[in-house]
Amino acid sequence: MSRIAVLTSGGDSPGMNAAVMSIARSAALLDMPLIGIKRGFNGLIGKYPKPEDNFVELSMDQLLDIADLPGTYLRTARCVEFKELEYQQKGAQFLRELDVTGLVVIGGDGSFQGAQALANQGIACIGIPGTIDNDLGYTEMSLGFDSAVNVCVDAIRAIRATSRSHDRPHVVEVMGRNCGDIALTAAQSTGCEIVVVPEVKGWDIEDVARRLNSLFDRGNTRATVVVAEGAWRTMGEFDFHTYLESQGAKGSFPGQRMDAVNFARVLQAKVNNPEVQVRATVVGYTQRGTAPTARDGAFAFEAGAMAVNLLKHSISNQVIGVRNGRTFHMPIDTALKSKSHFNRRMFNMVNAL
Ligand code: ADP
Ligand code: F6P
């Protein structure tokens, strides 16, 4: 093994830097020179005119201090071209010219497909799960998920405090793309009364309003509805604009998409008690740009060390994950076929009131 490289790809996630630090330490201990590919697969296809924007030689000493930094030191990007064979071949050639024979890809399922494509081009590739969404079915942990959930928990606790003071229900929208894990875990952790996730297709807004009214009537005047951003795509058919117009409510326009603010408007129109004011908060990118929790940092350290060890033994086409609390690795293609780990039982428990 001559040189190895590392890149971060897709949405940045807390813990990516900790994994890069761990890779640098492990590589240094094995005397393996390390290259950092910048801006995901964009760097690999030499997208930028200045070479230093595409790749950089990394030394362990320059990386010792980055473990607790949010964001990604190597930068990240979404590289549409990399889905095409021509660019995958170009990426493999780019690495060969740098004398790199092994690559660690830190990202989500899209990035793993990129890693698989490079492995098919003869580059030994190892994937480390780095996405706040937790949408990789083969693993119990993905770098950033725990950190993102903790941001949501802090936000929800603060929201529930002010909601309590004012007897106001609140809609809180969190990230997760097509996965409801951030929403469900944050709702479980904070005792929220209603959670809405994309995994439950055709969910009914009337049902949410009915439950909110029932909670209010029973004295729970600050119920919190946590909505995963992807849930808007799987909502049962409901023309909220026409509905709000029919109720004489202001602030919605034809063609607007359903979001937390519009959801709160609809609930406002449907609450039994005219005194009730429904508010909305979108937690947003603070979920991604936070420092990693201890749990994410520790997994990053272990995953980085395992990735380098696999490359040292010329093992390729593997992704690292956690199963039954233990760090393990498995083939990328099997991992990508794993089913989602949506916890329907917990979903029902949160929504049981
Ligand atoms: P994530 O890795 O978090 O799932 P994306 O789905 O945005 O994020 O994928 C990140 C990047 O991975 C894409 O911008 C692209 O460069 C690469 N990628 C995604 N899908 C493929 C694919 N089918 N083949 C090769 N590369 C891919
Ligand atoms: O995949 C991580 C994620 O933060 C998703 O939760 C979200 O849907 C998406 O990325 C947002 O992507 P962008 O950074 O392109 O707005």
- Helix and strand composition category: alpha/beta
| Rg, Å, rounded | 23 Å
Give the class-level CATH name of the largest domain: Alpha Beta
Number of domains: 2
Mean pLDDT: 96
SSE arrangement, N to C: EHEHHEHHEHEHEHEHEHHEHEEHH
Shape: elongated
| Uncertain ranges | none
Give the DSSP E fraction (strand runs of 2 or more residues). 15-25%
By DSSP, the count of extended strands is 11
CATH arch. level architecture of the largest domain: 3-Layer(aba) Sandwich
- Distance between the first and last residues' Cα: 58 Å
The hetero molecules present are: adenosine-5'-diphosphate, 6-O-phosphono-beta-D-fructofuranose
Which sheet architecture does the biggest sheet show? 7 strands, mixed
Percent in helix: 40-55%
The name of the CATH topology of the largest domain is: Rossmann fold
List the total number of helices.
14
Strand order of the largest sheet: 3-2-1-4-5-10-11
